[in-house]
Amino acid sequence: MKKLAIVATNICVACGVCVKSCPKGAVSIWRGCYAVVNDAACVGCGLCAKACPAGCIHVRERSGAR
Question: Which of 59, 52, 60 is nearest to 13 (CA)?
């Protein structure tokens, strides 16, 4: 099953480290508030989760039939 990065928006400080670490450009900062992941572009590699200094990104199994 494919994986997807999930952001805990209540913990994210919008530092942008995850944006720079994503090889697919799937992560962006929404209105300077927190990171968001484009589900269609995310390949679930986990590089953003490893780079996140706040530890607010986790990689989980995708739900649904993708």
Answer: 52
